[in-house]
């Protein structure tokens, strides 16, 4: 059976080996970076300048406002609210992540805004009518 002292000794040996490998790897990486800097004529000042924000960064530039259109140019639409918190008055459209006030609710229909349940039913009826028409057209085309 291995003792705690033996395990700690092994850990220390492995840690020293890992440090040595890390040191060797960093020496190799630094040499590679220096050779690439020489190849492209770069200096440490160029690196500092690139890190100061003058290079291409991802995301919005400071001071710009978000646009109201998506990537393909189509306008973004906001969905109407379906649920309302009676205490705070906060609303939720029913899409994306649910807010904390409705997240754990066993029955979300309690929070439905008047008419939202009727809209759901109308939407379902509309979809059923479209499917029914499509089936009827397919049958008539096959005949």
From TrEMBL:
SUPFAM superfamilies: H-NS histone-like proteins (SSF81273). Keywords: Cytoplasm, DNA-binding. Residues 118-143 have a biased composition (Basic residues). One of its GO terms (cellular component) is nucleoid. Gene3D superfamilies: 4.10.430.30. GO terms for molecular function: DNA binding. Residues 73-113 form the DNA-binding protein H-NS-like C-terminal domain. Its main location: cytoplasm. Residues 46-101, 115-143 are annotated as: Disordered. It is found in: Cytoplasm, Nucleoid. InterPro entries: H-NS_C_dom. Belongs to the histone-like protein H-NS family. This is Histone family protein nucleoid-structuring protein H-NS.
